[in-house]
Amino acid sequence: MTSPTAMPALQGATAGEREEFLAALTQMRDFYQVHPDAPLPGGLVLNIRVPGTGYGQRIAALRRIAAALGVTMTERDGVQYAERQFGPVTIEAHVSPPDFTVSGYYARTGAAA
């Protein structure tokens, strides 16, 4: 299993960028504690960009991301996902197949655009 400390290098984040991200989460928490009437976002999804130039490289990277998140990859409508839920917040990374199109997805699933 890949250790979480390996992820910044995988994603190209520096230690400073990682600290900045964590500080922003703390600032958001602090804001909502001081402003209890402020509206909350619903269904917040934080996306992780999956590196790689080809489908195989991106799937290999997604496997490493899933391991670092401590989850098993799943598949929905041909798209591979690594997702971790923290209450109403989801951290997500995904890789679509090479022939994936948004219009094809809507046609297959009946989802509204």
Unreliable stretches covering 5 or more consecutive residues = 1-10
Order of helices and strands: HHEHEEEH
Q: How many β-strands, per DSSP? A: 4
Q: Mean of residue pLDDT?
A: 85
Helix count equals 4
SS class: alpha+beta
Largest sheet: 4 strands, mixed
- Gap between N and C termini, in Å? 38 Å
| Coarse morphology | globular
What share of residues is helical?
Answer: 40-55%
User: What integer value in Å does the Rg equal?
Assistant: 17 Å
Count of folded domains: 1
Biggest sheet strand order reads 1-4-3-2
Strand portion, in percent? 15-25%
Structure commentary:
- The chain is α+β, with helices and mostly antiparallel strands.
- It contains 4 helices and 4 strands; from the N terminus they run ααβαβββα.
- It has a 4-stranded mixed beta sheet with strand order 1-4-3-2.
Short note summarizing the structure:
The chain has 113 residues and is an alpha+beta fold. The chain contains 4 helices and 4 strands, in the order ααβαβββα. 42% of the residues lie in helices and 19% in strands.
